[in-house]
Prior knowledge:
The structure is a homodimer. The longest helix of chain A has 29 residues, at 2-30. Chain A contains 20 helices and three strands. In chain A, strands 1-3-2 form a three-stranded mixed sheet. Chain A is mainly alpha-helical.
Amino acid sequence: MADLSELKQRYAEVHDLHMAAAVLQWDQEVLMPPKGAKGRGEQLSTLASLAHRLFTNADMGALIESEKSSAAPGTDDALAVEELAYDYERATRLPESFVAEFTEAQSAAYHAWVKAREGSDFALFKPHLERMVDLSRRKADYYGFEDSPYDALLEEYERGVTAAQLTPLFALLAERQKALVAAIAAAPAPDIAWLDQEWPVDAQWDFTMQVLRDLGYDFDAGRQDKSVHPFTTHFDVQDVRITTRVHPRELFSALTGSIHECGHALYEQGLRLEDRRTPLGYAIGLGIHESQSRLWENMIGRSRPFWEHYAPALRAAFPEKLDAIGVDELYRAVNAVQPSLIRVEADECTYNLHVVLRFEIEQALIEGTMRVEDVPEAWNAKMGEYLGLEVPDDAHGCLQDIHWSHGSLGYFPTYALGNLYAAQLMETIERDLPTLWDDIATGKFEPLLTWLREKVHRVGRRKRAPQLIEEITGTPPESAPFLRYLEQKYGELYGIDLSVSASADAMGG
Amino acid sequence: MADLSELKQRYAEVHDLHMAAAVLQWDQEVLMPPKGAKGRGEQLSTLASLAHRLFTNADMGALIESEKSSAAPGTDDALAVEELAYDYERATRLPESFVAEFTEAQSAAYHAWVKAREGSDFALFKPHLERMVDLSRRKADYYGFEDSPYDALLEEYERGVTAAQLTPLFALLAERQKALVAAIAAAPAPDIAWLDQEWPVDAQWDFTMQVLRDLGYDFDAGRQDKSVHPFTTHFDVQDVRITTRVHPRELFSALTGSIHECGHALYEQGLRLEDRRTPLGYAIGLGIHESQSRLWENMIGRSRPFWEHYAPALRAAFPEKLDAIGVDELYRAVNAVQPSLIRVEADECTYNLHVVLRFEIEQALIEGTMRVEDVPEAWNAKMGEYLGLEVPDDAHGCLQDIHWSHGSLGYFPTYALGNLYAAQLMETIERDLPTLWDDIATGKFEPLLTWLREKVHRVGRRKRAPQLIEEITGTPPESAPFLRYLEQKYGELYGIDLSVSASADAMGG
């Protein structure tokens, strides 16, 4: 018991250092004056290296070993020690010299990427991406894997999911979403010319704040600010912050962005208070995290009942501008489908296609079946195949995302998994909460939030994502519910018939 | 050399932890949602304890010892090692158990003080103040002292200054400022009834921002925000932030507060870039710091030339409200003298009297010649003696300041020293910059800032305050220049004759 409390105390210290770093990063993105960058970089580097040093200390390993055998099985303490042992093993598998090399390469790659994207010059980024692929493969070797080195990278973002499981899920998504997008392209487009006008930014801001309050975001345990790239961060279960950006000529961008971040934030605010500063007090992984943001943003925030409720408030927020616009027009406009070159601007129907493209390229790079120099060509070919678009330059193609410059290979699939999980959860929610859509149509979000709190948020890190999804929905992660959702919603919206019976595409256990 | 770079690296890490803590504290005061308090407290405590552990590590002592003998005398490296050795010795003199006891007592005392002040109930705070006095005396014993245990406490805030030096300085201040206040009370008061109206807060804010820019505050290396208690903090010489508060019915409060904090911030922004993360890259101490804030707030921001320059801009900021108000009226209003019970609201003529009162009580408590239970009576008697005021209750008396609840005995004198230093510096500045007041009257602040940068800011921690003041002004810290300044300015303002030749009150070497 003395050892356990020592272990908890040490873990809590490491946690505090990470949370302190998160505050410094938040400040850096939201408020920091430009000249503060140098000092801030040093401070963040010191916090990260201290956290790593404290966590990978040999004493820590000994304490974990001793507790592994003594914590009562099945208790939260035993689970916590298990999770800690997992993290400790991962952290100590990477030699310190490798971590330093990786960090240095990240910094160089990031700066090269910024320049390469600015000038749309892939050649500038190529040697850095080669280095990142090489380092990622070495990282996979350090971590170890069974089938594919890509699995070792996936593990970092979505524990317990492998490339072999993703391949059939993503193949089905690609096939059916491609067909859906083609059908929509052939259907008459909604009239959204009225969207192209000024939407005063203060009114937009106030409207998003009201929606956040309505959805259940606790402003006593968080705040919304503005930043160039919207994000969610947390320093504690009781201090979870989101950011948004407001464009004067876009009616829905700040709102849907805020709802997306709110989905992330509701998850973090919904973790158990009693798990604070323990290994269980974290989200499961990125896929489940994204399921929460997508569920709120798309399945709720882009639903017809949501707009039945909010149409009057939106009209009041923008006097006279929306007098001629009914619920149907709002619903159509917020769900307009338009294939585009840029992932972060993609709609529900095309988003996963952007992810599948990246997954296929990453996997080939890591497994050694594609060379870095062939990435632009492969990218552009896939954009043509999946979205029917021609890529004018690499800035609008393979240089658009920051992830590879950070060496975050294996991250993209979690975005699509989030969509799949969200749809699976939603089918169960609709069964569990028969009045869900009536509630949404009257602005009552609390039953939904309570369901998510109980089934998902409060679990913390007690389960893996595939296990949680199967326990809640009765099925392992699969594509069918998401495709059913898309095809029904957009079939109706665009007046096309796409009802195809779901294939057997469940993720193999 | 290897040792020196190791020593510098370790020092830089400790520095980074302190700076990270400062970011967390700033956020706590300015933005943090209320429920974040618990987690934030834990994070701050972890950062403080890690910084202490890293700094007082035995390795650190060995490295310092080895460098003490090897750094070339007179170089910045040698000075840095000297300063480090000083800090290390101070830090290691306090046993860890004592530090923990002190921290715990602070927290309890703070909460008791908040309640005691709310209910104006000294009895609630009394046992905590007794504990703080006891702990402070023990702290003095750990640190060691020659004459008075109070010297060991003063050392923490104003190194190299003793109670024996302060006593004659403060006695003279008390005598002459008391006389000045009495004379002003007998003179006709200026008509400031026009101040009592609404001063739109946005216009106040914009005006303070413009003044900050004019004075030379670098907004690329800092920012101004709002907080309940205005303060200045720094995370780096290139990230120095200030806060202010804006009252809708007070024209000068936000402005003079901003100028005050700006004086602190200009000092921090003026430290040498090359001293970053070294023991030399800090302000000398609190007295010199306060001299910078007071010099800008009072000697510049409450001068007639300053208002000659800013009167038109102020009139433009508050259309029609100031049409009948000339420079003289503004100058009189911003310098209105009104003895009050509360230190933080005190004007230039009465401020030091509040400090002298606290110094006398603190010294008596620490030297054991006054009991804590006698504090309220002593306080009230001195308020009558120095300011002619009757104290209605302890909330407006000995419970008004936070300092004692933090155990910060020995801190108050630095406020008065700041006034004295500022006046001494200003007499030298007026000699060195013959066009100073013409410059100020035309909004040209750069020559003054350059002078302060060269003579004061860039010194960093290379000197002690009394030494710096003597080197710059030719005289050790003394009361005469401040009294000359006060008596001349307020003699003119109130039409009274107070010219008394300065007594020989220099601080003994």
